[in-house]
Design brief:
alpha+beta; 7-stranded mixed β-sheet; 4-stranded mixed β-sheet; 3 domains
Amino acid sequence: MIPVLLLIFTVSSLFPYPLKTKPEETVVPRPGGELRVRAPGQRLNIDLDPAGEGYPLVIENLYEGLIRLDQNFNLLPGLANYWSVSENGKKVIFYLRQNAQFHNGQEVTAEDVKFSLERLFQLKKQPIFYELASRIEGGEEYWKGAAQEVSGLRVVDKKVLEISWKRPGISNFYFLAAGFTRVLPASLLRSQKKRFFEKPVGAGPFKFDYWLRNRRLEVIGIRLVRNENYFDRKPLLEAVEISPYFTLEDFFQDEIQVIPYLTYKISREKYHILESHLMQLSYLFFSCHIPPFDRPSVRRAIQSFIEKRQLAGLASTTSNFCQVMNCFIPPFLPGFLPESGRAEENFSQVLQALEEAGLGRSDKPLVVNLYLEVGNRDLINNIYQFLRYELKPAGIQLELKINYSAEDLSREKTPYLFYLDWWPALPDPEFVLWPLFHSEGSVNRERFHYRNARVDQLLEAQRNGINFQRRVSLFKEIEKILENDLPAIPLFYHKQRLAFQPYLRNLKTLPFGYFCLNLREVWMVR
């Protein structure tokens, strides 16, 4: 037997220099090509207002904001080339790019930015718009019609805008990176009004070309083309067509390039699959104000009976699947790496907690109502049957409540569970925790009635500062309190799967909703 060291020496002697291997071919990004994307859903969404409910894919690539987020939630310059912060974060001055212009060649100015933000406060479409208004000096007065303009939005120069915030905060920047704060041309929107969105003008990397139509001239999709005058590096793709009427067969015939992962018939060997996090979180809440769910010990005991993995499998589809979540803040949010969860209650503790609350008896079960707010309504009965079976050994007789109102919940005397799919308005822990767990949070106040003065105090504290690490530490402290109080059972967060042709390069998602893709740097190798 030849010693190993001798063998190595012999081989090294025969080949004293490194073996030459064929270098990998470097593929240089090349411009050209048209991308066709199957939009989610069964009907075309024709809403092109960034303050509306349109496709995030269209809004993200048609319009531009002051700043933007990448797939890892990093803040990047948008129309603002840079900005300066003063007064401990209460005042921020944004300096717009000199070469930024709208698709019609009109220059982007600070007046356009001011107009676009004030427009949100006039529309009053969503609670998050009021939340933004309430954070800017003079925003609430303008919202209520008591002022002609927002005093905290000041045009310093044609290319300089100053924003005065009531309080400093990192989340202020997430507002300005959101899709609904995209900048629109003030003069054009004032003159055209609602007609503007029939053929809108933005400042994004792609511009509106025309509506796709079928042979009966019905609108079936939208076509965007490359913005040749984009202020940043212009896109490589020539055009993008988006329609929910593109079919799976179109994908197999290579007539479209991107599609939701609708079926396992889409071979992973032949096609590429892109998986990414969605800002969709599922929880099972307790009615914390009604006995016996007013006791944290009972809530923790109930958790022991629910097998999350099976429930996650039940709620998953091929294109939207669920990842079990053992913390209240999803672990993929920036800076938040949760520690290992609370140790499970041992069975004797579970039985003791149930016995003290008068539960755990199959001959005398406690009637508990179940309310659901889910994205996929077809799952309602499946979720109910699963939870009903899981909680039966705990002495709970679960009853499904489908049609209900806020008034019904306010009058409810029977203890209840509430299954909720929650979409935070912004990808930030504050917009997970505040609505759901602050005593004055909009969702919590109406439905769950959880109260903890320390949680309220910490949520208030995280708003007043721009120190990122301190803010993360406050969120982690809140997480530990919620872990012990358990006002809800964190179930899972959702992930999306997209399938795409193997010749596509650099396809990435963005954190602003289902099927939101960054098409700025996508290219094709044919």
